[in-house]
Amino acid sequence: MEANTFTNIATQLRPRLLRTARLVLTDADEAEDVVQEVLLRLWTAWAQIGSGTYAERLGIRLTKHLCIDTLRSARVRYWAAMPAADSLADAPATSAATVREREIREALDRAVDALQPRERQLWQLHAEAGMRPAEIAATTGIGVRTVSSMLSAARYKILTKMKKGGYINE
Asked: What is the dihedral sign for C-alpha 24, 30, 31, 35?
């Protein structure tokens, strides 16, 4: 392992990895953490990588995947912090509107979980991370038209499930 070679490549690669992470993640600190993790993984695998070009491609791919993992874990933390549906019975002061809102949120989560894995990934990047189709395309490597088409299909599937469940009236 050549520490100097890796240091040179990492110095050149870091700004690009950081831009990619910031496109996906809204928090700059989380983006920094992702880039640090990617550089650490590249360093540990440097003996097998050996090439700057391959290291760059692998670094971008790792950044994308770690950003998605970060978004997923943030979603899990968010929903874990929400009170369970069982605790609604224990809260007599809870209004009917609040109960209905939670039911709708849970139905929406079930509808999103029922999507195909790729559609779910794109939907989460769009709906939860607030990314536009062009940003999603740049992050995932999928064409902008394909991203727009898949988001439209996901939207239709979610809307259909919400209608069937009686959560949307039309």
From this structure: negative
Own/partner contacts of 155-164, CB < 8 Å, gap of 24 or more, are 155/123, 157/111, 157/114, 157/115, 157/119, 158/108, 158/111, 158/112, 158/115, 158/123, 161/107, 161/110, 161/111, 161/114, 162/104, 162/107, 162/108, 162/111
3 state SS of 130: coil
Q: Tell me the C-alpha distance between 20 and 31, whole Å.
A: 9
Q: What is the DSSP letter of 91?
A: -
In angstroms, the CA 34 to CA 67 distance is 7
pLDDT at 80 over 70: no
Q: Give the pLDDT confidence of 32-57 residue by residue, as tens digits.
A: 999 999 888 888 877 777 666 777 88
